[in-house]
Input
Amino acid sequence: MDRQQISDTLWADGYARLGSLLSVGECRSLRALYADDSVFRKHIDMARHRFGEGSYKYLAYPLPEKIAELREALYETLAPIADDWMEALGFDVKYPPTLETFLARCRTHGQTRPTPLILRYEEGGYNCLHQDLYGEIVFPFQIVVALSDPAKDYDGGELLLVEQRPRAQSIGHALTLEQGEAVVITTRYRPVKGTRGYYRANLRHGVSRITRGERYTLGIIFHDAA
Output
């Protein structure tokens, strides 16, 4: 992973494709975890909460080894970029260089529950536009990894990103991820250069309706939940 390339793309678009981070076998193994409730701390029925149609499960600590490794490595890659974003927006916030230290900060604010999750959609499923905010401490980036093959497993189901700028029309992106491919997206807002410096542009994400098959996704969120 080239940190400078990731940084340049995040500054330009608010998201950056990271290429393939998981093999087909690793994707299958993580999909198979969904049936094992012992590795999860919570199960959410999206329709019940009017979040969409589908379900997702938050993993419990200790996280599966591969997910823990990715979470730590990706945090260390993204933390310096997060510092630059906060400086551009005028916030006096610095993120620790390691995930362990960042999670210790979360714990001091009562955020102790792990947030990495696996999502499952069947035909007709979708996810409404939203932001994954679980407390006062929020890391500005999160990761989405495709566990299913869009060429074989499902149709539809694009990852949707919508950016809302003050006094302007919203900008939308629709991304299709190959199996094992990851993308880093903006969690809440990002800096956008204006005539008087940088301003905040809010971003939300969701998933378009699945028209055939079944879609699994891994979400890696760095801040823990209260």
Q: What stands out?
A: The radius of gyration is 17 Å. The chain has a mean pLDDT of 96. The longest strand covers residues 210-221.
